[in-house]
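WARN  no MSA supplied for this record, continuing single-sequence
INFO  ligand: 1,3-dihydroxyacetonephosphate
INFO  echoing inputs
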Amino acid sequence: MPVVRTKAILERAFEERYGVAAINVVDELTMEAVLAAAEELRAPVIVQTSVKHVVMTGVGVMYAMWRELTKTITVPVALHLDHCPDRTLISECLAAGWSSVLFDASKLTVEENMRQCIEVVAEARRHGADVEGEIEGFKRTEEMTGDEAEHVQSLKTVVEFVQATGVDVFAPAIGNAHGVYATTPHLDSQRVTDIVEATGIPVALHGGTGMTPEQFSDLISRGCAKVNISTALKIAFMKSGYEYMSAHPGEYDPPAIFKAQRGAVMDMARHHIRLFGSEGKAWA
Ligand code: 13P
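INFO  complex generated
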């Protein structure tokens, strides 16, 4: 198997109405831990890389990590570039071998976003890769005002964007945000149903950290085949490191901390894979 197209992973999940965990990793340890959890649970998984971490690590090193770490993986996995407004970085990642990219031109007009997204899709296809599109952008949770779900584009605009660009998965704003929610967010789940019915493509659910199990299962049943988790990984990674150091004052043994962090990240990934219904969904 093991590295397949993002579209192949999402099509199955969309058809069978389970969610695939799309987890942002920050380094080699977290990439390995997410892959190990997916392998253990026989689940497909999408490993996501943020622009910040790709730039920090370097495209070549990041992709070399992915290539080496996936050599022994037997479940379907894909490598995705999350929220990228930078066309040059998109080109570099596609040329290196990323499975898919999220072209984030949400700060541009819809018309300009659409024009450029058509080019990104054409470029991705030349590399056998897939594209996620968005037109609304997401706030950080600390910037939320409670009326996020109301400031969205019309269904007509979404349909026009999806049809004109040919994106494989669409990320709508439904009252979700990135970070730690102060309270359970109020989500416009009907919008997911409307978009899925009108476009026929899977939806990417952003801002997954902190949503309730009921919200996840409702949204996945409506067509959110890709479920993004980032903050939960950062919390698991940082907290386990901090707790380890607090419990072992004066011990300066990096591999011991790494072991604790790997365990915490694997637990977090297992939890979400099970919650989204993708355990055992790896195909032969
Ligand atoms: P969280 O950080 O809220 O989990 O959101 C993840 C995400 O949507 C990445 O694009």
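The two ends are 8 Å apart (CA to CA).
INFO  checksum written, moving to next record
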